[in-house]
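Bench log. Compound arrived from synthesis this morning; before running ITC I wanted a structural hypothesis for how pyridoxal-5'-phosphate sits in the protein. Inputs:
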Amino acid sequence: MSIPVNTPLLDGKEELYLKECIETGWVSSEGPFVARFEEGYANYIGVKYGVAVSSGTSALETSLFALGIGQNDEVIMPAFTIISCAIACIRLGAKPVLVDIEPDTWTMAVDQIESKISSRTKAILPVHIYGHPVYMDEIFKLREKYNIKVLEDAAEVHGAEYFSDYAGKKWLKCGSMGDVAATSFYANKIITTGEGGMILTNNKAANEKAKSYRNLCFEKNRRFSHSNIGYNFRMTNLQAAVGCAQLEEIENHIKLKRKIACLYSQYLSKIDGLRFMVVKNWAKSVYWMYCVEIDPKLNVTAFEVCEELKAYQIDTRPFFNGLHEQPVFKNMGFFDNQQYPRTNFAYKYGFYLPSGFSIQESDIQYITASLENILSKLY
Ligand SMILES: *Cc1c(COP(=O)(O)O)cnc(C)c1O
């Protein structure tokens, strides 16, 4: 049996709450766990409103709609992210505009944003990466200077914190810093509902718009009258029941991720030719996935190393390929001839190691030894 790259942890009241759904017959989005999960998670992050939806991808699109992003608007985002960020934009008729990443944390290079701001720029979309926050102070400054909106993608950072000098010298949770934030509860995230997501905001109007978009834009007081083109992005009561149980355990989940990272850092530090995760002093990472980068001097790519690890029954995942490299966007004429060298570098040399909640210290020792074998052959 191989060591899986990820496994969810479902050892709380998931079964009990699911049983309650079945016994009461509340399985759709009308059931009581949905509001309970929304209030619970919004409260945990420290915002007023949460709108539960079917996925992180639909949360991103709903968030942009809630911010009023539409035809011909531009949204600045990192090249190094999941395609969902760009898709959310494009579906609304807006245009993704890219910046590169920081080479150490793989998060958005905030010093490149200002040069990409145009009269059409309506929002910045910082994506917190692999448990580590984006350097937000620069984005706060630009938001004020240019009067643009901020949508955080907080899918990979449940519970992570950022120390802001600009916003009052205090620690802020990821997901509470944007005008709106989108998160995901996919099975590999820190807490999961199987599939699912949420829009988080303090803004009442954005909250209303998000709720409307998720549910076909029904007019408020007239059922079956619709003011706009919405979607069915609703989360079921069954999913929210699992979410409520997961939320009760979130601190434990984060503790486990931090422990896994601590063990990896200890063991891997013996190996030459690997660079691993750094945490800035203004960040509290939740280490969603444990990531490494191969030293290019070894003349081997992440893909080759991951193939070799497969032979040791170790499951891994490559990093994101840049949005500018996606065939679908090339065909659409987006990002023509644009270069994002740090994103390309991360894609070529980076990958993540098994980081599931069920991983044991002995697994991490085995993974370290296997990596050492593979890399020592190259020196
Ligand atoms: C997982 C993830 C998403 C998408 O979430 P889904 O629920 O899979 O649609 C969006 N952004 C980031 C950064 C993610 O890691």
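What the model suggests: The mean pLDDT is 96. The pocket of pyridoxal-5'-phosphate is lined by residues 55-57, 81-82, 84, 127, 153, 155-156, 184, 186, 197 (CB under 6 Å).
ITC booked for Thursday regardless.
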